[in-house]
## 1
Amino acid sequence: MNRRTILVVLAAIAIVAAAAFIAFRMMMTPPEGLDLARSKASAKGLYAVAIAPEKEPLEQGPLHSWILTVKTPDGAPVEGATIAVGGGMPQHGHGLPTQPQATAYLGEGRYRIEGVRFNMSGWWEFTFDIRAAVGNDNVVFNLTL
Amino acid sequence: MRRRLLAVFLALVGLAACQPEEFTEAEKATIASLSLSALPPLAADTTNRVADDAAAAAFGATLFFEQRLSRDGTVACATCHLIDRQFQDDRPRSVGLATTDRRAMPLAGVARAPFLFWDGRKDSLWAQALGPLEDAREHGGTRAAYAHFVANAFGDRYERIFGPLPDLAAVPAAASPLGSDAEKAAWQAMPDAKKREIDTVFANLGKAIAAFERTIVHQPTRFDRFADAVAAGKTPQGEAALSEQEVYGLRLFIGRANCVTCHNGPRFTDDHFHNTGVPPVDGLPDDTGRAAGAKKVLDDPFNCLGIHRDGSDEACGELRFMVKEGEELERAFKTPSLRGAAARPPYMHSGQIATIEDVVDHYIRAPASVSGHSELKPLKMSEKERAALIAFLGTLVE
């Protein structure tokens, strides 16, 4: 192949790659390598936080509850925390379709989060602001549906 | 040489453009999730103790078609929800006693919606049925008049389902907190206990109508037969077959056109409210959609947290945890089901868009909203793709 052939082939590859990228963006596919861990340290490291839906499997559509577990990094349950729940779809620029709330403390650092709905498929952020005696911190979980 | 270059170029571009013959596993899962076969059984409505009572549903059907349930005896629910027209009326804006501001919604599967009306201003099917009955441009009657009418025309049927009617001897012929000045004054003059009794009769009429409406369901279409075959790993044939163009449209629908983001699940709706930049109608009052609807449902005395709900307030999660305010509610309207949509123009909450072709063009152009933010992003779509998408929507009709 001469240089011109190579150039044309490279141009064609670039067009294919660009088309694929646009298609990828349009599909609103969640980013590769998204951290889908359901337990992690809060942003400033004040808390070890875990989330789990009250019922598996996680379904798109129905209103449901989650259990949020808040502990100190050395594993002591955090009681009496004030929890604010938020989130949304970063690729669509909107928040959660409902206003979930922490409605009950279940002991052992566990809080019931009621009123959660994921009405669309794709990448969701699920965020918790935690205020307790230790301090204020927040944590962001990623979910894909 | 030049020919060889051209061949290489076309082969590579062709690679990007051609559609794979087989659906991917993810596509198959999405297609299966859209089939009516994936619809779970209708959940009980504990807020309506007669929701699944056959006698109540039959009574509700009678009421649904009853023109005397109106100020002048000419308007029934069925006036705008026509049984042979998907329970809608083909008009841009419905006409009861006068022309309203909104398009009638079809009723199939309506019992599954957490919020009713384009703006979700009601949170149950039975509470929804009460709205039009007292709206001056729809049925235009009053709850006191309806209580008298039911006692006279259907007293036995009512009492077999709901128990004894209250004593109506001292109740004015027409009275309501929402009527004319005279009707409001008549309502105000009634003792609170009597008001409550009339409200209970009124709510019960809604509960009977809701029991009937719970039986209105979607029928499987060619798409469902196709989806079930795909899900079963079979080649869709005969009545389950879609044309090449329809399959292409389906791929776009669940793929690049992003339709399935909101039009998801077996009813092709996420039951939520979205601003899609649909323009207001000249001459109509400003319509902020969910922003106003959210306030109305919270203030509604017949909402889930009110005294007319049956069962416990555990059923009220939708109301308790709804988003109550914020910019995302501005000009957001409910995602309508796309089942049967291709056969029921015009479109949008006030019939702003005349044809399905124009609807697809609206989504391709993605115009900005006059207030709030449209969630749409412009789409690049060829004429062939646009036609395929429209062809696919036709597979959801029958």
## 2
Amino acid sequence: MNPRPWWRKLGHGSLLLVATVYCVFPIYFMLVQSLKTAEEDVFGNPLIVVNPTFENFEELFERKGEARGFVGSVLRRNYPVLEWLENTIVVFAGSATVTLVASILAAYALGRLRPPGFRWWRRAIFATYVIPHTILFVPLYQVIIRLHLDDNLLALLLVYPTLALPFCVWILSAYFQQFPREVEESALVEGASRVTAFVRIILPMSRSVIVAAGIFTVGTIASDFTLASVFLLDAHNQTIPAGLGTMDVALDELLAVAGINLMAIPVVLICAVFARGYVRGLTAAMVEGA
Amino acid sequence: MRVATTARRRDIQVAYLLLAPTLLLLLTALAYPVGWEVWTSLTDLSPLKDGPTAFVGLENYRRFLADPEFWRAATVTVVYAAVTSVAKLSLGVGFALLLARPFRGRALVFLAIFLPWAYPASVSVIGWYWTLNPPIPTAYSVFMGNVKYAVDGVLGGGAWAFLSVTLFNIWRGSSFIGVFLLAGINAVPPELFECAVLESKSAWRRFWLVTVPLLKPFLALAVFLSLTTAFADLANVWMLTAGRIVYPVVGTHAYWLAIRGGQFGPASALSLTLVPFLLAVLLILFRMFDPPEKERA
């Protein structure tokens, strides 16, 4: 390829810069705010932090020191953030596992065993995305109560997977169905069972697509706010998003921003570690016709 | 082709068994609630009303069609979905094309573009809200206040809040679509793009004649996911406007009716009005990303 003229390089470079700033700025801004002292939040430059401090994060876990005056002592609340953190980890890990296991099983059924009408099964599962979740939580609450899961983390383990399942089943079954039959049959001929063939051959070969499905699941679950705050009422049962929603924003602005980062940073790190695998998995699933 | 051997029959049984967890989850979390919603939309169910619930048939739906408030919400919803989808797609295509070729620092830029989606929306929306509408005198609240009044002054009250919802949706969605389309571009053999370079000199023509058709299935999937999030975008609208909704979308209108007004019947009818539309879109898009002739042996 002939070398590109300087102005095209410059154009490409500046577009990259604009795209990066556009994507990262809001995140940077939230991170900067969470590292500020209350004084700096009011008087400092909003775009930078001069004296970074973790006091907001510390205070999130343990409110210490005197409350600022009478109003402060009346209005300040303690938040069980450690419990929120635990709950969030349990809910995320649990629902991601449920989603992946269920979707791998279903995808294997649709992609390899192909029961009659498997194409329509796939489409029907995917089509559940047209259902608006707007007021669905009203009847959903009835289901949850009937199952005695109200104010229980298990409720979210039941509900969250449905947010990501359709997409995961879609890409996993697209990927599974492109394996030539021989891949599995060679193992079957050698006396391995279908399960062994699946675990030893298909699963390892599908690692990247499973990673993609997993990242999609985590990203989707992590974006939910409504369901968590509707189903988890007790402060000790809440996840971080639900808990943050109960904070008084006017009083605890810095605390809440710290809470945002507390939740976001681990999720972002997980996603960043697997980011390449995510793209590779999506590509792998889509090469064989999405 | 009918091979009704015992092995095949067993395969089918196992298939249903493996489908069971997924179907069970979807049935409990979706089928009953949707059924309830359909039934409720035909009644005047309300927790605020004494006496038995009456079956009113299509009355709830009929009332909407005559209600200007509904048409306003519907218009806002359609405009919102269209504007955000177009913006997300164009930005997403742009991001994907920017990242399509190797260059120094590509991994970093990729990560930057991936971030808005990876950053949990449940909490980033809270951050956006405070940033755009600072609650207490922070260092930036004067500036944001001026922006808010400038926008509201030109476009009317509530415009800034609605604009911030739109911006947030685009910010997060364009990241998802960009990464998704990048995966799509990677799935296209590079020879096809190289041939295109030889065929046509105009990058614009090449984009429309080669890139877009090649990416059609991925674009279709992206459009669908974008539309469903835009239509169902209740939580974000709610959070970013703190419940003071001047521009109702169908979702918030239904939420308002159900939770604040206790009118479950009309609210159910309202939120169901979107379903046939989305289903029709999906059926059209299925032809693009799940073409039927692709039967593999």
## 3
Amino acid sequence: MSNYKLTHLKELESESIFIMREVAAQFEKPALLFSGGKDSIVMAYLAYKAFYPAAIPFPFVHIDTGHNFEETITYRDELVKLLGAELIVGSVEESIETGRAVEEKGFSASRNKLQTVTLLDTLEKYKFDAALGGARRDEEKARAKERFFSHRDEFGQWDPKNQRPELWNIFNGKKQLGEHFRVFPISNWTEMDIWQYILQENIPLPSLYYTHEREVFERDGIIYAALDAIPRRESEKVEVKRVRCRTIGDITCTGLTLSSADSLEDIIGEIASSRVTERGGRSDDKRSEAAMEDRKKAGYF
Amino acid sequence: MKDTTGYLDMELLRFSTAGSVDDGKSTLIGRLLYDSKSIFEDQLQAVKEASKRLGGGEEVNLALLTDGLRAEREQGITIDVAYRYFATPKRKFIIADTPGHIEYTRNMVTGASTADVAIILIDARNGIIEQSKRHSYIASLLQIPNVIVAVNKMDLVDFSETVYNDIKKEYEEIAAVLKLKNVIFIPISARDGDNVVDASKKTPWYQGETLLHLLETLPVRKDETKLPSRFPVQYIIRPHSDEFHDYRGYAGRISGGSFKVGDEVVILPSKTESKITAIDEGNKSLDEAFTPQSVTIRLADNVDISRGDIIVRKSETRPTVSANVSLLVCWLNHRPLNEGGKYIIRHATEETRAIIKDVHFKVNINTLENILDDKTVKMNDIAHISIKTLKPLKYDSYGENRITGSLVLIDENTFETVGAGMIVHNLEDETYTI
């Protein structure tokens, strides 16, 4: 007699694959938003699994701020080749050049917010009607209230008070012309689940996630990479430290963690004993208490 | 190297919390997260600052950990279903935190639809109020396997055993009427943590378990794998590549029982028969798969199968195939149900249209009486209705199978999800009391 017991990782995987297949079945032109971070890497592997041996039936879309770690781009290109996926790049640089977006000024300037413009323009340009994102509900309090199938109006905006009820595993992707959906298949995963899954499935990661020596500087208690994309004040001195990324985004808003973790087991151990959330190192969330909610309403990821 | 194997072998338990305004629901969740060390320093710091700003002084308001939207923080209420996560070495938990106020019954139904356990909070000072009954009715309607009645704010009634026992006795009568399955009572103080994670010294008369220990040990829904097998076809996988030229797989999530390679199966509604030749999961092939695994099934014959069809084992009880469906519906939209009107129906992976044939009665979920003279089904109402669908559905009753027994109604013009339906064969046969 079989023991019908599913581990939490298998159950989460099954749920995510179900949702990806729903997207492929319900929408005409979906896309998978790929940032190069660990969550979107897991998304890419889940998509591969969901449709194997057929090709992934939607392209990956990368919104490139132009301020990326080099490793992210190399990894992205290799992964796309490995999984046989199609890649579309939306450039924030281009949005700035064409005047669609205006670059922030000053020391804490970030292109993070500008991504929204490029993202919405890219979705519009290719007429994507569903964008799969790797957001998780445990990341941030506004995200805790988001549906798997999150409806966006014709301006790409989220109305948190008027979300469609989502019951059992029935997902309603019906929409009017010009509207689209953001779909979050890994909503129910936590940071720990992601790492455990990467370990279980033996998924290769960009080297940035493991400890490495890097020139860094400190600002408001957060350690940043000392790269040209972030202008430094004279008082902010550059030091070489052993660090790793806990999340990877745009260079200007990705804080680094002091760490000597050089294996997945070490990283999991480190997270298990960590007392700060992964977004604690994201300066974009520290702008105000409702920073994420405001960005999401405007059409952010 | 650290030992991580334990982490990879946990089970998942989903529970919902329901309570009235100020029952301390958010505080309880905050407490579970805080005491299980799932709260991080930066979150705690943000909550401390917010508590101070909102006039709470130095006392940390744990409710602010869960109330995510600006309006919620300002008004001190929970607007929408919020999902929270925490893990102990034994289990990973998903909490659907649903608001208690009357106008948000729809959120409670939403949050409870996937729950293994419902925690119903009762304020020890107020005892059982109409909303407690409403919450219990929804737990019964959605057939949640376990109900934990947490009698909260015991600190405000001096941890009185009499107060607790009176509430327990009164609730047991309601539970009997509602035929709630497994009801467990716990006296707690969410604010101070009594009996939440650690046993309280202030309730020596209580011999039961703490809330967290219960959550760690209650059986996770396993009955699903013993149900008659159900495989709603979700997506057809045809690679069109040289390597997999003849590959044709039916992708879906098993929604009842299990399937084995070699099983004789029937495809509904066509009643075509075939045999399972392979069960694929990514690039691995399995001998057997069970609920709720997402897999791809391959069959011996090249049969005509499309999304919405259901594959079942030939030897087992089949679902009803019919265009006439009787259901209990919870209405979710501001615009009332239109008797005689048409709606889009989503049932398992099937989509079709339906006409509302009849509204039989509404349920007063405070008194649990049937309302026969007013058949206007408004938001948050529960009603027994009959529909006729364009394509026949392949369904079980909700009591038999939560997935093949549930459906949603979608407005044809706005495309909003307006109704949540639980299919009934015959009301008298079901566990419902109405």
